[in-house]
Structure prediction request, 279 residues.
Amino acid sequence: MLVKQVIWTLLPVLFILVAVGYAMSLIIGSTHEKRGLLDGKALASYAAYYPVRVKPDGSLTLDATRFMQAVDYFSGQPESRAAGELIYIGQGNSIALQLNDDEKNRYAALLKKPAYSEYKIKAQHDPLKTYKSIVDGIGQTLNGTGVEIVLHDTRNPLKSVVAIQNPITGRKIGDSNTNFGYELIRSYAATEEEGPNYVSYALTIKDGRKVKSSTIPIYQDRNLIGFICINIDISQLDGANKDAESALIKAFASTSSNEEIHEVIGNTSRNLLNSETDK
Prediction:
């Protein structure tokens, strides 16, 4: 069936696009001075001090008590990546509103250390900026196809969604990561090696729809900073709903008109060279 061939071939195409974007980001990143990067293990590798917790319903929450335990621990340690990531989570979730005066003072003392200045706010050279453009461009290309593409900032799991297109799961920018995403963050933090992609696994979302998903980790200098997640709604692609399949094919075939674009892909320099040689 044509529609199934489209779905099965779609994911590799997306991976190629993401890989190209990733390579571009490496080139762009190499032209900028590295700033604010600290050595050491990820905060998520410290089980006793990681302040993000999973509630019984699967949602994520910030544990203020554990956050302060982490503040006290890292305040007595050399400057480290983990302490910077703790500050990133705290600032991103207004942790000060949950602290008493004494706790605020202890947290403020950690914030004053110059090494952590880059973690207090999202810097202008945010490494995920390039990926936002990639996610938006791919997602807009696939508009109406039931293919959701999401960019997560894994440094702040509680507000991790920083870009999303075609939100079949109902999420929006500023929403948290999932319980599975949380487990991946903890798992990737347990080793200094870059973790694998998780490709084409099955999910069932809250309304009962079946989804085909993939999760691609994003690293900066071997530090996990994000996920690109692709979720494909396959609930109506069983051959029984012809209208849904027709709508999907129509969405794939849809193009936007732009009079300024006059591209002929076949006229590459290699083809032109071959045509001159054949004369």
Notes: The first strand starts at residue 52 and ends at 54. The chain is about 40% helix and 15% strand. The chain has two domains: 2-31+126-253, 43-120. Residues 2-30 form the longest helix (29 residues).
